[in-house]
Write a structure and sequence with these properties.
Elements: H1 18-36, E1 40-41, E2 47-49, H2 50-57, H3 62-67, E3 70-72, E4 78-81, H4 86-95, E5 105-114, E6 126-135, H5 140-157, E7 164-169, H6 173-188, H7 196-204, H8 215-220, H9 233-249, E8 253-255, E9 267-275, E10 282-290, H10 293-296, E11 304-310, H11 311-320, E12 331-335, H12 341-353, E13 358-359, H13 366-375, E14 380-384, H14 386-391, E15 393-398, E16 403-408, H15 412-416
Parallel strand pairs: 1-5, 7-8, 12-13, 12-14
Antiparallel strand pairs: 2-4, 3-4, 5-6, 6-11, 7-9, 9-10, 10-11, 14-15, 15-16
Helix pairs in contact: 1-5, 1-11, 5-9
Catalytic activity: tRNA(His) + L-histidine + ATP = L-histidyl-tRNA(His) + AMP + diphosphate + H(+)
Subcellular location: Cytoplasm
Domain Aminoacyl-transfer RNA synthetases class-II family profile: 10-335
Protein backbone atom coordinates (compact mmCIF):
# COMPACT_ATOMS: atom_id res chain seq x y z
CA UNK A 1 0.00 0.00 0.00
CA UNK A 2 1.55 3.37 -1.03
CA UNK A 3 2.21 5.89 1.76
CA UNK A 4 -0.30 8.68 2.34
CA UNK A 5 0.62 11.80 0.40
CA UNK A 6 1.89 14.49 2.72
CA UNK A 7 0.09 17.84 2.75
CA UNK A 8 1.22 21.35 3.75
CA UNK A 9 0.79 22.26 7.41
CA UNK A 10 -2.52 24.00 8.16
CA UNK A 11 -2.21 27.72 7.53
CA UNK A 12 0.57 27.34 4.96
CA UNK A 13 0.44 26.89 1.21
CA UNK A 14 2.53 26.37 -1.88
CA UNK A 15 2.93 29.28 -4.27
CA UNK A 16 2.78 27.87 -7.79
CA UNK A 17 1.77 29.20 -11.19
CA UNK A 18 -0.46 32.28 -11.22
CA UNK A 19 -0.27 32.68 -7.44
CA UNK A 20 3.51 32.76 -7.51
CA UNK A 21 3.54 35.22 -10.42
CA UNK A 22 1.22 37.61 -8.56
CA UNK A 23 3.27 37.25 -5.39
CA UNK A 24 6.49 37.98 -7.26
CA UNK A 25 4.96 40.97 -9.06
CA UNK A 26 4.08 42.54 -5.69
CA UNK A 27 7.56 42.02 -4.24
CA UNK A 28 9.45 43.06 -7.36
CA UNK A 29 7.34 46.20 -7.82
CA UNK A 30 7.69 47.20 -4.17
CA UNK A 31 11.45 46.63 -4.26
CA UNK A 32 11.82 48.76 -7.41
CA UNK A 33 9.68 51.67 -6.18
CA UNK A 34 11.20 51.67 -2.68
CA UNK A 35 14.64 51.96 -4.28
CA UNK A 36 13.47 55.09 -6.12
CA UNK A 37 12.73 56.65 -2.72
CA UNK A 38 16.20 55.79 -1.44
CA UNK A 39 15.36 52.66 0.57
CA UNK A 40 18.06 50.00 0.98
CA UNK A 41 16.98 46.39 1.35
CA UNK A 42 17.82 44.56 4.58
CA UNK A 43 17.29 40.87 5.26
CA UNK A 44 16.98 39.91 8.93
CA UNK A 45 16.64 36.37 10.38
CA UNK A 46 13.22 34.72 10.34
CA UNK A 47 13.65 33.89 14.03
CA UNK A 48 14.87 36.09 16.85
CA UNK A 49 15.41 36.12 20.59
CA UNK A 50 11.85 36.19 21.95
CA UNK A 51 12.63 39.42 23.81
CA UNK A 52 12.89 41.28 20.49
CA UNK A 53 9.14 40.90 20.11
CA UNK A 54 7.96 40.78 23.74
CA UNK A 55 9.73 44.09 24.40
CA UNK A 56 8.63 45.78 21.22
CA UNK A 57 5.10 44.53 20.67
CA UNK A 58 3.91 44.76 24.26
CA UNK A 59 2.44 42.08 26.47
CA UNK A 60 -1.13 43.27 25.83
CA UNK A 61 -0.97 42.83 22.06
CA UNK A 62 -2.72 39.80 20.60
CA UNK A 63 0.47 38.99 18.70
CA UNK A 64 2.47 38.42 21.90
CA UNK A 65 -0.30 37.01 24.06
CA UNK A 66 -1.90 34.64 21.54
CA UNK A 67 -0.20 34.36 18.16
CA UNK A 68 3.59 33.98 18.40
CA UNK A 69 5.38 30.78 17.44
CA UNK A 70 7.77 30.54 20.39
CA UNK A 71 9.95 27.57 21.35
CA UNK A 72 12.96 26.70 23.45
CA UNK A 73 15.93 25.63 21.35
CA UNK A 74 18.48 22.97 22.28
CA UNK A 75 20.61 25.54 24.05
CA UNK A 76 17.73 26.51 26.33
CA UNK A 77 17.11 29.89 24.66
CA UNK A 78 13.61 31.18 23.93
CA UNK A 79 13.28 31.71 20.18
CA UNK A 80 10.36 33.18 18.22
CA UNK A 81 9.56 33.02 14.52
CA UNK A 82 9.10 36.65 13.54
CA UNK A 83 5.42 37.72 13.60
CA UNK A 84 6.40 41.06 12.00
CA UNK A 85 9.65 42.70 10.95
CA UNK A 86 9.78 46.23 12.36
CA UNK A 87 11.17 45.00 15.68
CA UNK A 88 13.77 42.89 13.87
CA UNK A 89 14.89 45.84 11.73
CA UNK A 90 15.27 48.00 14.85
CA UNK A 91 17.25 45.23 16.55
CA UNK A 92 19.49 45.00 13.48
CA UNK A 93 20.11 48.75 13.58
CA UNK A 94 21.34 48.48 17.16
CA UNK A 95 23.24 45.19 17.02
CA UNK A 96 25.12 46.25 13.88
CA UNK A 97 26.24 49.51 15.47
CA UNK A 98 24.25 51.69 13.07
CA UNK A 99 22.16 53.62 15.60
CA UNK A 100 24.78 56.21 16.51
CA UNK A 101 25.66 57.76 13.14
CA UNK A 102 24.54 57.95 9.54
CA UNK A 103 20.88 58.45 10.38
CA UNK A 104 18.32 58.42 9.00
CA UNK A 105 18.47 54.88 7.61
CA UNK A 106 15.83 54.02 5.04
CA UNK A 107 15.15 50.27 4.98
CA UNK A 108 13.04 48.05 2.71
CA UNK A 109 12.32 44.40 3.52
CA UNK A 110 10.35 41.49 2.11
CA UNK A 111 9.85 37.99 3.46
CA UNK A 112 7.80 35.46 5.42
CA UNK A 113 6.25 36.13 8.84
CA UNK A 114 4.54 33.66 11.20
CA UNK A 115 1.46 33.97 13.43
CA UNK A 116 -0.67 31.26 14.96
CA UNK A 117 -4.15 32.43 14.04
CA UNK A 118 -7.24 31.07 12.31
CA UNK A 119 -6.44 30.66 8.60
CA UNK A 120 -8.80 32.35 6.15
CA UNK A 121 -8.66 33.80 2.65
CA UNK A 122 -5.71 36.17 2.43
CA UNK A 123 -4.55 35.30 5.96
CA UNK A 124 -2.19 32.43 6.69
CA UNK A 125 0.01 31.23 9.53
CA UNK A 126 3.01 31.67 7.29
CA UNK A 127 2.38 34.85 5.38
CA UNK A 128 4.54 37.39 3.58
CA UNK A 129 5.08 41.09 4.04
CA UNK A 130 6.80 43.94 2.32
CA UNK A 131 7.66 46.97 4.41
CA UNK A 132 9.70 50.13 4.75
CA UNK A 133 11.18 51.88 7.79
CA UNK A 134 12.78 55.31 8.12
CA UNK A 135 14.96 55.06 11.23
CA UNK A 136 16.12 58.29 12.83
CA UNK A 137 13.80 60.91 11.29
CA UNK A 138 11.58 63.01 13.54
CA UNK A 139 10.08 65.21 10.84
CA UNK A 140 6.47 64.84 9.63
CA UNK A 141 7.76 64.84 6.05
CA UNK A 142 9.19 61.36 6.73
CA UNK A 143 5.72 60.11 7.66
CA UNK A 144 4.19 61.56 4.50
CA UNK A 145 6.96 60.26 2.25
CA UNK A 146 6.57 56.74 3.65
CA UNK A 147 2.85 56.85 2.91
CA UNK A 148 3.50 58.30 -0.56
CA UNK A 149 5.91 55.47 -1.31
CA UNK A 150 3.24 52.93 -0.35
CA UNK A 151 0.69 54.72 -2.53
CA UNK A 152 3.18 54.78 -5.43
CA UNK A 153 3.68 51.01 -5.11
CA UNK A 154 -0.08 50.47 -5.28
CA UNK A 155 -0.31 52.73 -8.34
CA UNK A 156 2.45 50.77 -10.09
CA UNK A 157 0.62 47.53 -9.29
CA UNK A 158 -2.57 48.96 -10.78
CA UNK A 159 -4.63 48.53 -7.60
CA UNK A 160 -4.63 52.06 -6.16
CA UNK A 161 -8.20 52.79 -7.27
CA UNK A 162 -9.38 49.92 -5.08
CA UNK A 163 -7.84 51.20 -1.83
CA UNK A 164 -8.48 54.18 0.45
CA UNK A 165 -5.99 55.79 2.82
CA UNK A 166 -7.31 56.40 6.33
CA UNK A 167 -5.07 58.43 8.63
CA UNK A 168 -5.11 59.30 12.31
CA UNK A 169 -2.77 60.61 14.98
CA UNK A 170 -1.94 59.05 18.33
CA UNK A 171 -0.44 62.34 19.52
CA UNK A 172 2.69 62.92 21.57
CA UNK A 173 3.29 61.59 25.08
CA UNK A 174 1.27 64.38 26.75
CA UNK A 175 -1.62 63.95 24.32
CA UNK A 176 -1.57 60.19 24.78
CA UNK A 177 -1.66 60.48 28.57
CA UNK A 178 -4.65 62.81 28.45
CA UNK A 179 -6.42 60.60 25.94
CA UNK A 180 -5.72 57.47 27.97
CA UNK A 181 -7.31 59.09 31.03
CA UNK A 182 -10.37 60.08 28.98
CA UNK A 183 -10.74 56.56 27.59
CA UNK A 184 -10.41 54.97 31.01
CA UNK A 185 -13.09 57.29 32.39
CA UNK A 186 -15.43 56.54 29.48
CA UNK A 187 -15.00 52.77 29.30
CA UNK A 188 -15.01 52.37 33.09
CA UNK A 189 -18.59 53.60 32.97
CA UNK A 190 -19.45 50.79 30.56
CA UNK A 191 -17.18 48.08 31.92
CA UNK A 192 -19.95 45.51 32.22
CA UNK A 193 -20.59 45.83 28.47
CA UNK A 194 -16.96 45.31 27.46
CA UNK A 195 -15.70 41.97 26.19
CA UNK A 196 -13.44 39.96 28.49
CA UNK A 197 -10.40 40.89 26.42
CA UNK A 198 -11.24 44.58 26.51
CA UNK A 199 -11.77 44.50 30.27
CA UNK A 200 -8.13 43.39 30.50
CA UNK A 201 -7.12 46.09 28.00
CA UNK A 202 -8.89 48.70 30.11
CA UNK A 203 -6.42 48.01 32.89
CA UNK A 204 -3.29 47.62 30.77
CA UNK A 205 -3.74 49.57 27.53
CA UNK A 206 -7.17 51.13 26.95
CA UNK A 207 -6.18 52.44 23.52
CA UNK A 208 -6.26 48.83 22.30
CA UNK A 209 -10.02 48.74 22.88
CA UNK A 210 -10.38 50.97 19.82
CA UNK A 211 -8.92 48.12 17.78
CA UNK A 212 -11.32 45.49 19.13
CA UNK A 213 -13.27 43.36 16.65
CA UNK A 214 -15.94 42.47 19.24
CA UNK A 215 -19.37 43.77 18.17
CA UNK A 216 -20.27 44.93 21.68
CA UNK A 217 -17.00 46.82 22.05
CA UNK A 218 -17.44 48.47 18.68
CA UNK A 219 -20.93 49.64 19.58
CA UNK A 220 -19.43 51.58 22.48
CA UNK A 221 -16.95 53.35 20.19
CA UNK A 222 -19.57 55.61 18.63
CA UNK A 223 -19.67 57.75 21.78
CA UNK A 224 -16.07 57.28 22.88
CA UNK A 225 -13.79 60.35 23.02
CA UNK A 226 -11.32 60.89 20.16
CA UNK A 227 -7.67 61.85 20.27
CA UNK A 228 -8.37 65.14 18.49
CA UNK A 229 -10.05 66.48 21.63
CA UNK A 230 -6.82 65.92 23.60
CA UNK A 231 -3.99 66.89 21.25
CA UNK A 232 -1.37 69.33 22.46
CA UNK A 233 -0.68 72.24 20.07
CA UNK A 234 2.61 70.59 19.04
CA UNK A 235 0.91 67.26 18.28
CA UNK A 236 -1.85 69.00 16.33
CA UNK A 237 0.75 70.91 14.30
CA UNK A 238 2.62 67.68 13.55
CA UNK A 239 -0.51 66.02 12.21
CA UNK A 240 -1.43 69.08 10.17
CA UNK A 241 2.03 69.02 8.59
CA UNK A 242 1.66 65.33 7.67
CA UNK A 243 -1.69 65.94 5.95
CA UNK A 244 -0.32 69.02 4.18
CA UNK A 245 2.60 66.99 2.81
CA UNK A 246 0.25 64.21 1.71
CA UNK A 247 -1.69 66.77 -0.31
CA UNK A 248 1.54 67.88 -1.96
CA UNK A 249 2.42 64.25 -2.76
CA UNK A 250 -1.04 63.89 -4.31
CA UNK A 251 -2.12 61.11 -1.95
CA UNK A 252 -5.88 61.24 -1.22
CA UNK A 253 -6.70 60.57 2.45
CA UNK A 254 -9.57 60.62 4.87
CA UNK A 255 -9.37 61.07 8.63
CA UNK A 256 -10.39 58.14 10.83
CA UNK A 257 -10.03 58.83 14.57
CA UNK A 258 -10.60 55.16 15.43
CA UNK A 259 -7.39 53.91 13.81
CA UNK A 260 -4.86 52.63 16.31
CA UNK A 261 -1.97 50.32 15.78
CA UNK A 262 -2.17 46.85 17.25
CA UNK A 263 1.35 47.23 18.68
CA UNK A 264 2.42 49.30 21.65
CA UNK A 265 5.30 51.36 20.30
CA UNK A 266 3.46 53.82 18.02
CA UNK A 267 2.96 57.59 18.46
CA UNK A 268 1.78 60.43 16.25
CA UNK A 269 0.83 59.20 12.76
CA UNK A 270 -1.15 55.99 12.31
CA UNK A 271 -2.61 55.00 8.96
CA UNK A 272 -4.14 52.20 6.94
CA UNK A 273 -4.87 51.59 3.29
CA UNK A 274 -8.17 49.70 3.28
CA UNK A 275 -10.22 48.03 0.56
CA UNK A 276 -13.68 46.54 0.13
CA UNK A 277 -12.74 44.66 -3.04
CA UNK A 278 -11.96 41.50 -1.11
CA UNK A 279 -15.37 41.21 0.56
CA UNK A 280 -15.57 42.81 3.98
CA UNK A 281 -13.37 45.88 4.35
CA UNK A 282 -9.83 44.80 4.99
CA UNK A 283 -6.46 46.41 5.54
CA UNK A 284 -3.80 45.87 2.89
CA UNK A 285 -1.08 48.26 4.13
CA UNK A 286 -0.68 49.85 7.55
CA UNK A 287 1.86 51.62 9.69
CA UNK A 288 2.78 54.77 11.52
CA UNK A 289 5.33 56.49 13.69
CA UNK A 290 7.16 54.70 16.48
CA UNK A 291 9.63 56.74 18.50
CA UNK A 292 10.52 54.30 21.26
CA UNK A 293 11.23 50.95 19.68
CA UNK A 294 14.94 51.34 18.93
CA UNK A 295 15.42 52.34 22.56
CA UNK A 296 13.61 49.15 23.60
CA UNK A 297 16.25 47.22 21.64
CA UNK A 298 19.05 48.82 23.67
CA UNK A 299 19.77 51.72 21.34
CA UNK A 300 19.47 55.48 21.79
CA UNK A 301 16.16 57.34 21.36
CA UNK A 302 15.52 57.11 17.61
CA UNK A 303 12.35 58.59 16.09
CA UNK A 304 11.15 56.31 13.28
CA UNK A 305 8.24 55.68 10.95
CA UNK A 306 7.24 52.91 8.56
CA UNK A 307 4.62 50.53 7.27
CA UNK A 308 4.07 46.89 6.36
CA UNK A 309 1.79 45.35 3.75
CA UNK A 310 0.54 41.82 3.31
CA UNK A 311 1.75 40.37 0.01
CA UNK A 312 -1.16 37.92 -0.02
CA UNK A 313 -3.72 40.73 0.28
CA UNK A 314 -2.05 42.81 -2.44
CA UNK A 315 -1.85 39.73 -4.67
CA UNK A 316 -5.57 39.12 -4.18
CA UNK A 317 -6.23 42.67 -5.40
CA UNK A 318 -4.18 41.89 -8.50
CA UNK A 319 -6.31 38.81 -9.05
CA UNK A 320 -9.56 40.72 -8.49
CA UNK A 321 -8.47 43.30 -11.04
CA UNK A 322 -7.49 40.71 -13.63
CA UNK A 323 -3.87 41.80 -13.29
CA UNK A 324 -2.14 38.42 -13.07
CA UNK A 325 1.21 38.66 -14.90
CA UNK A 326 1.38 36.58 -18.05
CA UNK A 327 3.91 33.79 -18.43
CA UNK A 328 6.69 34.95 -20.79
CA UNK A 329 6.24 33.19 -24.12
CA UNK A 330 9.25 31.02 -24.94
CA UNK A 331 11.03 30.20 -28.16
CA UNK A 332 11.27 26.47 -28.85
CA UNK A 333 14.66 25.36 -30.14
CA UNK A 334 14.24 22.04 -31.96
CA UNK A 335 17.17 19.96 -33.17
CA UNK A 336 16.37 17.31 -35.77
CA UNK A 337 18.92 14.55 -35.47
CA UNK A 338 21.79 13.97 -33.07
CA UNK A 339 24.26 16.12 -34.99
CA UNK A 340 22.04 19.18 -34.53
CA UNK A 341 21.82 18.97 -30.75
CA UNK A 342 25.09 20.79 -30.03
CA UNK A 343 24.45 23.73 -32.39
CA UNK A 344 20.84 23.91 -31.15
CA UNK A 345 22.09 24.17 -27.58
CA UNK A 346 24.42 27.00 -28.65
CA UNK A 347 21.45 28.83 -30.17
CA UNK A 348 19.36 28.33 -27.02
CA UNK A 349 22.10 29.78 -24.82
CA UNK A 350 22.59 32.74 -27.17
CA UNK A 351 18.85 33.44 -27.00
CA UNK A 352 18.89 33.32 -23.20
CA UNK A 353 21.82 35.72 -23.04
CA UNK A 354 19.82 38.04 -25.30
CA UNK A 355 16.93 37.99 -22.82
CA UNK A 356 14.73 35.47 -24.65
CA UNK A 357 13.11 32.54 -22.84
CA UNK A 358 14.31 29.48 -24.74
CA UNK A 359 13.27 25.86 -24.26
CA UNK A 360 14.63 22.64 -25.71
CA UNK A 361 12.66 19.43 -25.51
CA UNK A 362 14.89 16.61 -24.25
CA UNK A 363 13.50 13.94 -26.54
CA UNK A 364 11.02 13.19 -29.29
CA UNK A 365 10.81 13.52 -33.04
CA UNK A 366 10.05 16.78 -34.84
CA UNK A 367 6.28 16.27 -34.66
CA UNK A 368 6.29 15.66 -30.90
CA UNK A 369 8.60 18.58 -30.24
CA UNK A 370 6.39 20.90 -32.30
CA UNK A 371 3.34 19.69 -30.36
CA UNK A 372 5.14 20.48 -27.13
CA UNK A 373 6.11 23.93 -28.44
CA UNK A 374 2.47 24.71 -29.26
CA UNK A 375 1.27 23.49 -25.84
CA UNK A 376 3.82 25.72 -24.11
CA UNK A 377 2.50 28.80 -25.91
CA UNK A 378 5.79 29.34 -27.72
CA UNK A 379 5.81 32.32 -30.03
CA UNK A 380 8.36 30.83 -32.42
CA UNK A 381 10.33 27.69 -33.16
CA UNK A 382 13.93 27.47 -34.30
CA UNK A 383 14.39 24.22 -36.25
CA UNK A 384 17.85 22.90 -37.05
CA UNK A 385 18.42 19.71 -39.03
CA UNK A 386 21.21 18.22 -41.12
CA UNK A 387 20.38 20.37 -44.15
CA UNK A 388 20.38 23.54 -42.04
CA UNK A 389 23.70 22.58 -40.43
CA UNK A 390 25.28 22.15 -43.80
CA UNK A 391 24.30 25.71 -44.77
CA UNK A 392 24.78 27.33 -41.34
CA UNK A 393 21.12 28.34 -41.10
CA UNK A 394 17.95 27.58 -39.12
CA UNK A 395 14.29 27.49 -40.01
CA UNK A 396 12.53 30.22 -38.00
CA UNK A 397 8.82 29.46 -37.72
CA UNK A 398 6.35 32.08 -36.43
CA UNK A 399 3.85 29.92 -34.52
CA UNK A 400 1.21 32.66 -34.42
CA UNK A 401 1.26 33.53 -38.11
CA UNK A 402 2.21 30.03 -39.31
CA UNK A 403 4.96 31.44 -41.53
CA UNK A 404 8.51 30.16 -41.86
CA UNK A 405 11.78 31.61 -43.16
CA UNK A 406 15.42 30.61 -43.39
CA UNK A 407 17.76 32.64 -41.15
CA UNK A 408 21.56 32.39 -40.65
CA UNK A 409 22.31 30.81 -37.25
CA UNK A 410 24.26 33.86 -36.06
CA UNK A 411 21.26 36.13 -36.75
CA UNK A 412 18.66 34.11 -34.84
CA UNK A 413 19.14 35.81 -31.41
CA UNK A 414 18.97 39.29 -32.95
CA UNK A 415 15.75 38.44 -34.79
CA UNK A 416 14.04 37.26 -31.61
CA UNK A 417 15.52 39.52 -28.92
CA UNK A 418 13.01 41.93 -27.29
Amino acid sequence: MPPTALQPVRGTRDLIGEEQRRHQRVVDTARRIAALYGFEEWATPVFEDTRVFSRGLGDTSDVVSKEMYTFTDRGGDSITLRPENTAGVCRALVSNGLAQAGLPRKVFYAGPMFRYERPQKGRYRQFHQIGIEVLGAAEPLADAECIACGWHIQQELGIAEGTVLEVNTLGDAESAAAYRAALVAYFAGHKDRLSADSQVRLEKNPLRILDSKDAGDRALLTEAPTIFEHLTPAAAAFFEAVTRHLDRFGVPARRNPRIVRGLDYYSHTAFEFVTDRLGAQGTVMAGGRYDGLVEEMGGPPTPSVGWAAGVERLALLLEAGGLTPAVPRPVAVIPVGEAAEGPALDVAQALRRAGVVAEMAYKGNLKRRMERANRSGALAAVIIGDAELAEGVAQLRDLDAGTQETVPLAEVPGRLAP
